[in-house]
Structures are given as structure tokens and as C-alpha cells.
Amino acid sequence: MYCIFCKNPDTEVIETRLSEDGGAIRRRRHCPKCVKRFTTYERVEELPILVIKRDGRRERFDREKLRRGIFKSCEKTKVTSDQVERVVSEVEAELKQQGTTEIESRLIGNLVAKYLKKIDKIAYIRFASVFRRFVDVEDFEKELKKLL
């Protein structure tokens, strides 16, 4: 590893440990040439998740976009930002466990709906109305009957 200060190619590792979240290895390094210390992190390279949209287009999974959509459904409800974060994390974790890098948007919507249904029925109905493209009152009635 090159020294970040003097570009010396021969640095020494003086300490190695797991990062706080366990997702990386943290290494403290020392440069014998300039006598400075610095930290490096080693992480697993994750493959990007591609979302297959309804029209067949593919776009990169965007955690922030998912969070915004869930927050929109949860406006003026009792759902906390911590709960929204938990849903986003759970959905992302389930997507990574799928064993593929291409996921249909329908699966993501179903996962979000599953979690929102447990947390808040109003947020669930709002999300479902957009995700499932409710076009009239009968669509709402059908979904409400399922909830009851």
C-alpha cells in the first residue's frame, strides 16, 4: 500500500481490526520513510443491483429513491424515520439475498408493501395505490377488504 503522504510503496501494518459495523477491515499503517500514520479499509466489492422496470428498462438500485418513496407513503402517519430506515435496510438485505444482480421492480414493491402492512395500514394503502396503480375506488375497496 502506497503512503498517502510521500507515496512510499513500502508501508507497514501496525494494527488490524474489524470496523464497527463488521463490514470492513480497518488497518492502521505506518510509513517508515516519512514516519506518518494513516488508516485504510478493506471491503468486499459488492455487485450493483439492477432494477428491471415495468417497461423493461434497467436502472441501478437507488436506496435513496426507495427511502423517498416510502417516506411519501408515510407522510402524516405515526411511522417514524427509524421505522422507514428499517424497512429500507430490510428490503435491501432481502434483495442482496436473491442471488442475482437483476431484480424486477415488482418484487421490490411487494417487499415494501409487506413491511408497511405490518407497520401502518394507511401507509400501506398509500404505497399500494401507487405501486399497484389503483385507478378507481373499486381497487381501493378490494385492497381494504384484504386488510380487514
TrEMBL record:
It holds the Pfam family ATP-cone. Its cofactor is Zn(2+). The lineage of its organism: Bacteria, Candidatus Roizmaniibacteriota. The gene is nrdR. Transmembrane segments: none annotated. A zinc finger (unnamed) spans 3-34. InterPro entries: ATP-cone_dom, NrdR-like_N, RNR_NrdR-like. NCBIfam families: transcriptional regulator NrdR (TIGR00244). GO terms for biological process: negative regulation of DNA-templated transcription. Negatively regulates transcription of bacterial ribonucleotide reductase nrd genes and operons by binding to NrdR-boxes. It comes from the Bacteria. PROSITE patterns: ATP_CONE (PS51161). Keywords: ATP-binding, DNA-binding, Metal-binding, Nucleotide-binding, Repressor, Transcription, Transcription regulation, Zinc, Zinc-finger. Residues 49-139 form the ATP-cone domain. This is Transcriptional repressor NrdR. Binds 1 zinc ion. The keyword Zinc-finger applies. Belongs to the NrdR family.
